[in-house]
Structure formats: structure tokens, C-alpha cells
Amino acid sequence: MIEGGALRVISLFGIPVKIHWTFGLLFLYVGYIGVRHGMPWQSTLLYGLFVICLFICVVLHELGHALMARRFNVKTVDIILSPIGGVARLTHLPSNPKQEFLIAIAGPLVNVAIAILVGIIIFGFGIDYSQFLVEREEVTILPGDFLPLLLVMNIVLFFFNLIPAFPMDGGRVLRALLSMRWSRVSSTLIAVRIGQILAVLFVLGGLWMEQFVLPFIGVFIYLSAANELKHVRMDDYLSFKTVEEIYRDQFTVLYEFDPISYAWDRSKRTLEQYFLVSDVSGHISGYLSVQSIQKALQAQDMDNFIQAYKSTHIESIDAEMPLKHLYQLFYSQGFRILPVYKDGTLVGVVDQRSFMG
What's the pLDDT at 97? Predict the structure, then answer.
């Protein structure tokens, strides 16, 4: 299934692993390198196989983050692979700096474990790696290069990810260590500034050495660091706000056995995009979206009951819930509208529009 431009290919420990559509460009690039440098098709194929193995290491790296996060009750939405690497999308990061440190360092330590395992295979089985050390003028890859190169690349991944700059793991490791003494916002600010200084050095160094990939990485790091600071400041702000401050007390409750035509008439007289749906006992059992109403309209099924078109993906929240937790709820579980209760009484609703605006 393709979701948001990413194809789900496997599930590991209950975590979906997806490949972004741009990932295919990587293999086009491998083919281009093979043709440009006149590599034999066997070497080009081996080169492509090595890329696949390297990205398996990337998946294991991200899985390290995800499984460590699970120990602290932090869920992982998915792991997405793209040509520039992989990312484990966590619903949130724990506020405890020790837990954040362990989650951040878990990924790079997986690369160390892989490097050690590959090293044991090379030296334990007496695999000849002498040709790997020979300097060559032509761009090619030989079968004997495979394991030594995999070992080296995992070491490179370890050190690269520990660069103290967001979005690399090193930025989060640094922030976690600083958070043991200072506030999360202050620690993030320090880590971000350090990362941005390194980013500027990447840009200048790349231009000076005419290595134009480095400026690209530098700009990416600089913008990612700024985005992380913005996110943490917003997260800190939301921690002191509650649902009570944003919920909407003007809302419509429909009933399961009302006809869709009634919901259609109501939707034409309101700006609401989602309507709460109640069962016969008065309990909120789901919601009806304007899109579902339009679907019934197209199917000429307006006399059918709302129950046939409602969604049951809903849960109740308390008015005292911090907005930080509400954001996590919308982001991680994909809710569209939630009923708000205060002292056991339904007092309002929040949806994506009211939450964001």
C-alpha cells in the first residue's frame, strides 16, 4: 500500500517499514555510475546489491531507535527510507534526558554492532581483503570488496550520525546531555547553534575543496536545526496550555439513525467538516465527515442511515489535557475530531482546524 508517496514493504516488530518513491532514483544513479565509468555489468549489479545491504543496515539503525523508544512507551509511526537515508518517525521524544540519550545513541550503536559482526566474519573465516586495500584508478567494486566496504561504511555511519548537529543523532545526544543540567529549550538552543556553526563550516569547506555535496549537507543541517528549535519552543509553549483554551463549544451532534440527507442539510448551513455521532443511549460512537456525506450523495444513498457512513475512530478527551498531549494524539493516531468532556459532561470538540488555528 502506498501512503504519502511511500510504499510499505515489510513490518518489523510491528513497525511498518516504507520506501519513499524517490528511493528508486538511487538505483538509477547506480546504473548511471556503471555506464559512465564503463563498469562491467557484474560490478554494477554488485554495486546495487551493496547499496541494498547498506540500506538494510540503515533500517537496523532506525530499528535500534524504535525498539529503545518502545522501552520508554514511545511508539514509532513507521520507518521511511529515502535516497538520503532513513528515519524512524516517533510519536514524541521523552522529556527525561536519560531516556532521550539512550534512544538517540541506540541507532549508532547498532552500526558498531554490525561492524563488529562483519569484522568477526572477515577475520574469523580468514577472508582475503588485500585487494580492498589496493588503490585503483578505475571506479569498480569486486566481490572481495563487499564485506570490508560494509564494515567501513558502518563505521562511517557511526561517526557521521554522531556529528553534534540536528537532525543527526549526535544533535539529540548533545541535547540530552545538556538537558541534564539546563532546560530542554536552553539545551536545544545550544545544540542548535553548535550544529549551525558546523553547517556553515560544511558549506565553506565544501566550496573551498570543490566538494559540492558538503554545502548541500550543510544547508540541510542548518535548516533542520532551525526547525528543531522552532518545534521545541512550540512544544514548550503547548505544555502550559490545555484543551479547555481551544475547544469549540458550538458543534453538532447527529444520531446514528438520522438519514444522510439530514446531515447533508446541516453541512450546508455550517462550516463544520466533522460531526459527532451519538448512539440511541446518548453516547458518542463516532463521527461523520463532509467527505462521507458527499460520497453518499454521489452514490444517491441519501436515505441511508448515518450509521452506515460514520467512522468509529474516535475517543473522548478531558478539557484539562495539555495541548502537547493533544498534538501527539492527532499526529500519532490520525484523529479528525475528538469530543471534549469536563466533569463528565460533553462541553465541546476539537478538530484539526480548531487545534491549528
Answer: 92
- CA 135 vs CA 39, 140, 145, 193: distances in Å: 17, 11, 12, 39
* Cα dist from 156 to 185, 210, 270, whole Å: 30, 21, 57
Query: Could you report the per-residue pLDDT of 236-293, keeping only the tens digit for each?
Result: 777 778 888 888 888 889 899 989 898 898 888 888 888 999 988 889 988 898 888 8
Same domain, 147 and 170: no
| The one catalytic residue among 3, 62, 100, 320 | 62
* Sign of the four-CA dihedral 328, 333, 335, 338: negative
- Of the three residues 136, 162, 188, the one that is the final residue of a domain is 162
Shared domain for 118 and 2, answered yes or no, is yes
Q: Answer for the pair 339, 249: CB distance below 8 angstroms, yes or no.
A: no
Q: What is the pLDDT of residues 322-344, one digit of tens each?
A: 887 777 777 767 788 888 899 88
pLDDT, tens digit, for every residue of 162-173?
Answer: 988 887 899 999
Q: What is the pTM of this model?
A: 0.70
Determine whether 244 is an active site residue: no
Q: Which residues contact 84 (CB under 8 A, 6 or more apart)?
A: none
Q: Residue 129's pLDDT band (boundaries 50, 70, 90)?
A: low
Q: What is the CATH classification number for the domain harbouring 319?
A: 3.10.580.10
Q: Are residues 27 and 149 in the same domain?
A: yes
- DSSP code of 321? S
Tell me the CA distances in angstroms from 32 to 36, 41, 49, 57, 153, one per residue in order: 6, 12, 15, 24, 21
